[in-house]
């Protein structure tokens, strides 16, 4: 599958990137959401993703207070990847902080990334800062002008906030590149809340996190509902009812269709879900599945190696709409 532009920038991304929340070293609240993995596994996961053609990685300061950034950088160095050879995206968390901290903390981000440039720097969420959104964006724009980051993005911004971000950055002579939001077959709110239409109109890429809805779309909980008991506590909370007997029953027809399509293409249900996501919305949406095992990274990359036909995409569209 061909690459696609990050917004209106000059960066070309593969439709699938690798989310790096699992790379935390057991630090921060991320450990309540994902299983921690050690550096050796991280390096193997990153190597597998690269071998599968993935050319970008999304991390964040919040993922282990910079530990994810460090582990990613160590893995890239271990794989012989030179700075700038792949795109690295990271995020600034606004909770309880002012816009001034964006400039003060960028040095830590760059140190943790070990020389890998920040291709995309994102405001991690739209609320929680002690400064206004425009003030945060102007601080981001300064980093761009100073050459410390290549592009500016946001995360979890509404359509109205996306418009505001685009306008403020444009006044600073900077392009808004991306908005990272939750999108998957069971969570298609962007189609109704204006985010998708606004992104398309403004030329902003949507980066889909949680593209497999916490593993629901892999089908493993449908195959064995008891597996939910072994999930980290917050993952069970984030199941949003899908992990209940009723939720699994409601989604069973969708998963059955995904299994059927997967067998026809020789791929997994997860790969069907990812391929639908990166084809149904055209070039506007890219996805960042996470991986705690090399096999999961290979599976994610493999979702780019085939393409569902329109009839299959339409069928999944029809089956998933009542669920979202």
Features of the shown structure:
324 residues, alpha/beta, TIM Barrel, eight-stranded parallel β-sheet, two-stranded antiparallel sheet, 12 helices, 41% helix
Q: Could you explain how this protein is built, in words?
A:
- The chain has 324 residues and is α/β, with parallel strands linked by helices.
- It has a single domain, classed as TIM Barrel (Alpha-Beta Barrel).
- 41% of the residues lie in helices and 12% in strands.
- The chain contains 12 helices and 10 strands.
- The chain has an 8-stranded parallel sheet.
- The protein starts with a strand and ends with a helix.
SS-based class: alpha/beta
Question: The CATH topology is what?
Answer: TIM Barrel
What is the helical fraction, as a range of percent?
A: 40-55%
The largest beta-sheet arranges its strands as 3-4-5-6-7-8-9-10
The sequence of SSEs as H and E is EEEHEHEHEHEHEHEHHHHEHH
User: Termini distance?
Assistant: 28 Å
Round the mean pLDDT to the nearest integer and report it.
93
Treating each run of at least 4 consecutive H or I residues as one helix, how many helices?
A: 12
How many strand segments?
10
Shape label: globular
Rg is: 19 Å
Query: Which residues form runs of ≥5 with pLDDT under 50?
Result: none
CATH class: Alpha Beta
């Amino acid at each position: 599958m061909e690459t696609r532009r990050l917004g209106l920038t000059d960066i070309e991304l593969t439709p699938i990137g690798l989310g790096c929340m699992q790379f935390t070293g057991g630090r921060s609240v991320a450990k309540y959401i994902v299983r921690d993995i050690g550096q050796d596994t991280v390096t193997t996961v990153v190597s597998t993703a690269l071998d599968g053609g993935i050319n970008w990685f999304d991390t964040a300061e919040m993922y282990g207070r910079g530990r994810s950034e460090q582990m990613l950088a160590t893995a890239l160095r271990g794989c012989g990847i030179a700075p700038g050879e792949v795109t690295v995206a990271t995020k600034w968390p606004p909770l309880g902080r002012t816009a001034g901290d964006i400039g003060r903390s960028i040095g830590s981000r760059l140190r943790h990334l070990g020389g890998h440039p920040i291709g995309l720097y994102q405001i991690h969420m739209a609320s929680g800062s002690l400064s206004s959104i425009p003030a945060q964006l102007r601080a981001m724009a300064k980093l761009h002008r100073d050459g410390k980051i290549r592009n500016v993005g946001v995360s979890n911004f509404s359509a109205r906030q996306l418009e505001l971000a685009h306008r403020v950055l444009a006044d600073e002579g900077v392009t808004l590149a991306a908005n990272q939001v939750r999108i998957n077959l069971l969570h298609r709110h962007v189609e109704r809340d204006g985010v998708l239409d606004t992104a398309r109109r403004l030329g902003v890429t949507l980066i889909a996190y949680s593209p497999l809805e916490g593993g629901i779309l892999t089908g493993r909980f449908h195959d064995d509902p008891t597996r939910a008991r072994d999930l980290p506590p917050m993952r069970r909370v984030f199941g949003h009812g899908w992990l209940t007997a009723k939720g699994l029953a409601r989604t069973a027809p969708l998963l059955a269709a995904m299994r059927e399509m997967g067998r026809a293409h020789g791929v997994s249900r997860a790969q069907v879900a990812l391929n639908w996501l990166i084809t149904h919305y055209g070039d506007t949406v890219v996805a960042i599945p996470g991986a705690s095992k090399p096999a999961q990274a290979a599976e994610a990359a493999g979702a780019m190696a085939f393409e569902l036909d329109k009839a299959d995409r339409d069928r999944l569209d029809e089956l998933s709409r009542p669920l979202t």
